[in-house]
């Protein structure tokens, strides 16, 4: 009976794998927060880019530094998301605390128009988990995505006012996705685990138009991860007619998932040396993620259409330099959603969101630090029109989003 059960559930498994893999990479899983000074400014940093984290934000900016610089920190995030079902129940995301580290090193040789850098950061990631009683457990219960990038860069100061830079990105990612196979909480589970590496690149340009104005642009290329691993399918108690007997099956599996290209354009305005205002347009091409390719047990399926949309971050930041190395910053971001109702995935927390941030820092002759607080708020998103699956479950309902984050970055100049 085990082979019969395996064949009976295979179409459902493919659908589940496709849905969950897609969910793990939407806007809710992009991590643009790679430095406390930049985060305090609402990530409006591409036209400023004046510390080692410029490796991520705009590699051309590292030509502004001198000697050797090390900078690293951690982004501590508390995500609070609540689902209100049409039946009247409310359920909270169970995986709310996250800590994401980053590290940057730059070296500017004397008497050369070149600068070199090495960064290690996570541009995507996080995780989420919903209770089995949510009412959509056969759509999604848990997702964990790790995505680490190592990024060597070289920047060239072409003229005193113009620099360009860039380098390869070496990306490693692993993924762990789970959901139920029937509406019975805790009775069964489908799980996919896999990992892969991929190469990409980033580019940057920084132009000091005048002492008051500077223009910055950066680009991160698309990558495609072919997650190789296996699926585990477990049914503890028979659920006729789909699962006539309990069983457990492991199969080799692969999921090919594209990660989008990203481009940022920004203008910085310094009316006096004591003030720096900046506005950025930050575009992510989620429309590239319009399909996922799945294979399991050596059988490939046609790509699954998703219909996602490109989206923007609108970022504004301001910094006041107080003298004696001290500064304070504030910022605001408006983030558009990317996933339409018909393909909404509960693991994503995808909705229009607002982020407000405040921060302070100090830069001495050698040691410097920044600390930032960020509040994220998403007005309630009502999902409707999600087609029910074979068990009659859907992601229709209301989703609320609230996040709190604290970021600390410290650095040393040699």
Would you mind describing this structure in some detail?
The protein is mostly beta strands. The chain has a single domain (2-413), classed as Outer membrane protein transport protein (OMPP1/FadL/TodX) (Porin). 7% of the residues lie in helices and 57% in strands. The protein is built from three helices and 21 strands. The chain has a 14-stranded antiparallel β-barrel with strand order 1-3-4-6-7-8-9-12-13-17-18-19-20-21. It is elongated.
- 3D shape: elongated
For the sheet with most strands, the description reads: 14 strands, antiparallel, barrel
Q: Provide the CATH superfamily.
A: Outer membrane protein transport protein (OMPP1/FadL/TodX)
How many alpha or pi helices?
3
Topology pattern, helix = H, strand = E: HHHEEEEEEEEEEEEEEEEEEEEE
How many strands appear in the DSSP assignment?
Answer: 21
Question: SS-based structural class?
Answer: mainly beta
Structural domains: how many: 1
N→C terminal distance: 68 Å
Strand order of the largest sheet: 1-3-4-6-7-8-9-12-13-17-18-19-20-21
Radius of gyration: 23 Å
CATH class: Mainly Beta
Give the averaged pLDDT, no decimals.
89
Low-pLDDT ranges:
1-26
CATH structural architecture? Beta Barrel
Assign a percent range to the helix content: under 10%
- Percent of sequence in beta strands: over 45%
CATH domain topology = Porin
């Amino acid at each position: 009976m085990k082979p019969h059960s395996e064949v009976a559930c295979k179409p459902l498994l493919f659908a589940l794998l496709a849905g969950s893999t897609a969910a793990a990479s939407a806007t809710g899983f992009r991590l643009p927060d790679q430095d406390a000074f930049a985060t305090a400014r609402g990530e409006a940093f591409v036209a400023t880019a004046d510390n080692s984290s410029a490796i991520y934000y705009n590699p051309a900016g590292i030509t502004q530094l001198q000697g050797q610089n090390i900078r690293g920190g951690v982004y501590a995030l508390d995500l609070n998301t609540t689902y209100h079902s049409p039946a009247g129940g409310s359920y909270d995301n169970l995986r709310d605390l996250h800590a994401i580290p980053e590290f940057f090193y730059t070296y500017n040789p004397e008497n050369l128009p070149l600068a070199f850098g090495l960064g290690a950061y996570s541009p995507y990631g996080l995780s989420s988990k919903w209770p089995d009683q949510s009412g959509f457990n056969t759509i999604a219960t848990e997702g964990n995505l790790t995505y680490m990038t190592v990024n060597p860069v070289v920047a060239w100061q072409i003229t005193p006012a113009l620099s360009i830079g860039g380098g390869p990105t070496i990306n490693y990612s692993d993924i762990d996705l789970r959901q139920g196979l029937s509406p019975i909480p805790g009775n069964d589970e489908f799980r996919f685990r896999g990992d892969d590496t991929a190469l990409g690149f980033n580019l940057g340009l920084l132009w000091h138009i005048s002492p008051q104005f500077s223009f910055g642009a950066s680009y991160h290329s698309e990558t495609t991860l072919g997650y190789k691993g296996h699926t585990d399918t477990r049914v503890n108690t028979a659920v006729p007619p789909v699962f006539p007997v309990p069983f457990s099956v492991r199969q080799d599996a692969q999921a090919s998932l594209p990660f989008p290209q990203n481009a940022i354009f920004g203008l910085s305005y310094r009316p006096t040396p004591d003030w720096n205002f900046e506005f950025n347009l930050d575009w992510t091409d989620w429309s590239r993620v319009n399909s996922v390719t799945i294979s399991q047990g050596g059988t490939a399926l046609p790509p699954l259409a998703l219909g996602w949309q490109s989206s923007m971050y609108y970022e504004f930041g301001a910094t006041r330099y107080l003298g004696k190395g001290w500064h304070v910053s504030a910022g605001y971001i408006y983030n558009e959603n990317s996933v339409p109702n018909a393909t909404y995935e509960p693991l994503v927390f995808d909705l229009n969101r607002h982020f407000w941030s405040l921060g302070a820092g100090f830069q001495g002759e050698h040691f410097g630090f920044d600390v930032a607080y960020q509040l994220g708020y998403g007005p309630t998103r009502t999902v409707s029109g999600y087609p029910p699956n074979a068990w009659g479950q859907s992601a229709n309902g209301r989703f609320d989003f609230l996040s709190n984050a604290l970021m600390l970055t410290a650095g040393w100049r040699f």
